[in-house]
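Chains adopt folds. We examine one example:
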Amino acid sequence: MLFDLDNVQKNYGSFRALDGVSFKLKEGSVGLLGPNGAGKSTLIKTLLGLLNLDGGSASVLGYRLPDEAEKVRRSTGYMPENDSFLPYMTAVDYITYGGRLVGMPKADAFRRAHEILYYVGLGEARYRALSGFSTGMKQRVKLAQALVHGPKLLFLDEPTNGLDPKGREEILELIEDVKARGVSIVLSTHLLSDVEKVCESVVMLNNGKLVHHGSVADLTQSGERVFEIEPKGEIGVLIDALRKADFNVSQEGLKAKVIVAENNDGQDILKCIVENKIQIRHFVPGELTLEAAFLGLLEEASP
């Protein structure tokens, strides 16, 4: 069992960052989704045993928290969102240090550092100071330190953050290769297209609460469809009208997305628009994407 959480709670003073989160997941690749402040980073740090639970119980890879937190950390790798290295260190020194932190002998960590830097495409830069690395190189070196000790589970917090399309694609290809080698993945990101490419299942949080967990296929092939609507006037007027008519609607930029049953031809949506005398630029039916499903679930979960 990859994760087994039962009513997990985490507080920062009077603020409850995780509020009764419960789910079970087996091995595989998991997308961790939610808006800013949803509790994603808190959940990762809690599952790594870096933060103590304030309620409930949790196990990772069969190890119970907090009693077996050290075993969890020796079996997992963590790629943080923000840079976490000293700029004067060389790449090989940094990766070696990371290996030693999880208990590897110095000689083994040094040998493995060379191997893993070549694996992520930084072999020629392994003796360069990290201060001279580009954003893409820094993301690769953070991935390398997460992999140096051969973890069974890898936590990735915004691994494609700040990358151009080519660099993003290359990092995703590396993650796919790590998966193919039998390592389970938890990918925390705001880019849902990355989740669709890499992950088989998702965990969605909002305001510290679990909104949904299950397979990506269950969400995108749920017998529903989506209509994308762009008004000529204020998007808020359209959104309000559709919500008053009890449609499952979310806003994406200047467009509204309405999730309906698969056999719905959209006539009831158009009727609502005409009755409210709203002019529209386009009204486009399409398949339910992970992004549309995610926004719809957040809308349903909103008070």
